[in-house]
Amino acid sequence: MTDVAFGLFDHLEQRAGQAPHDTYAGRIRLVQAAEQAGFHAYQVAEHHFTPLGLAPSPSLFLAALAPVTQRIRLGSLVHLLPLYTPVRLIEEICMLDQLSGGRLELGIGRGVSPFELGHYGVDFLASRDSFEETLTALIAGLTQPQLHARGAQFRYRGAPMVMRPLQQPVPPLWYGITSAGSVRFAAERGMHVVSLAPNEMLADLMTAYRELRTGHRGGPLDLSAPGSVTRMGALRQVYVGRSAAEAKRVGERAYAVFYANLMHLWRTFNVVNTLIPPTCAAARELGTLIVGTAAGVREQVQTLFGETGCNYLAGEFVFGDLSDAESLASIERFGADVMPAFGPGDEP
Questions:
Q1: pLDDT at residue 2, as a whole number
Q2: Residue 121, H or E segment
Q3: Which of 153, 191, 206, 329 has the most CB atoms at less than 10 Å from its CB?
Q4: Mean pLDDT to the nearest integer, 243-247
Q5: Does residue 237 surpass a pLDDT of 60?
Q6: DSSP 3-state helix, strand, coil percentages of the chain (rounded to 5)?
Q7: Do 250 and 280 meet the contact criterion of CB atoms below 8 Å apart?
């Protein structure tokens, strides 16, 4: 499997008893270790009002990573477009792409939590329109010398676009897929895709995406660079342990904390997020949590790629209460004993 790649996905969760500046410093070291191990990209989520995420501004954290890394690509999964003023985001994207030497991977979405958007004053039911208006303005601003765009919350009449991204026509775009509509939306625009769906559902999504992508390659909405590889990804929590027993124990412990952080804001409103399995056992059965020895994880990853048709794994190697030492050891085992089975990867 020489066409696959591996990324490090991160919610940048708050750790109990640890100051955020220590969490940031530790994460920078882990990203540097992932770069040395040959990971293709580091991609951070955007969350608000919850311990699930200490990167409410992905741009800020990615800017901090740019000068202390050299090869690993840096991106978001995702920037929540309804929360941004288009011109401000356009300028930040251009800065990030220039600062990183053209290593930016730009994830976009409208957000899955109505409560996070609600605390920002954004109506979740209206967020689809806001997302599409902002995306239209974003693409226009990144590709045109002047911005002409109009939305419910903004209007631009020939605003000069002085900043330009280093990558042309735009930095690679990523989109989360969960339905036929989201698959079509991404395929038409040449976006890389990622999904946390279980393997069986993921296989159907990837088959549909591949078929639609073929028909829309080079079309009027296609934003992909000519000749670029399309990444079709699975998002999974991953822990590679010294032994099967240790991996199971640590995985169960960390997953319980991750799920509590994920549900923090949802439980405030007495609502359950049904997209994420509530227990480690359920997640392992569905294939959304990959834990074991290096040999066991290698087998699970082979099954994932074989059953789904994905060519990218966005692995969350730091989740719940995993310590930096545990995550670093897991990343190093994965890089040394799992990734080589799938091709040369991004050599350090």
A1: 56
A2: none
A3: 191
A4: 96
A5: yes
A6: 45, 15, 35
A7: no
Q: What angle do CA 14, 199, 257 make, to 5 degrees?
A: 20
Residue 209 CA to residue 181 CA, distance in Å, equals 10
* Separation between Cα atoms, residue 134 and residue 139, nearest integer Å: 9
Q: Cite the beta strand spans of 1-154 per DSSP E.
A: 5-10, 41-44, 73-76, 79-80, 104-109, 146-150
Q: Which of 132, 92, 125 is closest to 108 using CA atoms?
A: 132
Max CA separation in the chain (angstroms): 62
Confidence of residue 348 (pLDDT cuts 50, 70, 90): very low
For CA atoms 189, 191, 194, 198, give the dihedral sign: positive
First-residue to last-residue Cα distance in the chain = 19
SS3 at position 80? strand
pTM surpassing 0.85?
yes
Using pLDDT thresholds of 50, 70 and 90, give the confidence band for residue 347: very low
Neighbours of 169 (CB within 10 A): 14
Which pLDDT score, from 0 to 100, does residue 345 have? 56
Contact present, 312 and 233 (Cβ < 8 Å): yes
What is the Cα–Cα distance from 266 to 171, expressed in whole angstroms?
A: 33
Angstrom distance (rounded) from CA 42 to CA 32: 10
- Is-contact 98 252, C-beta < 8 A? no
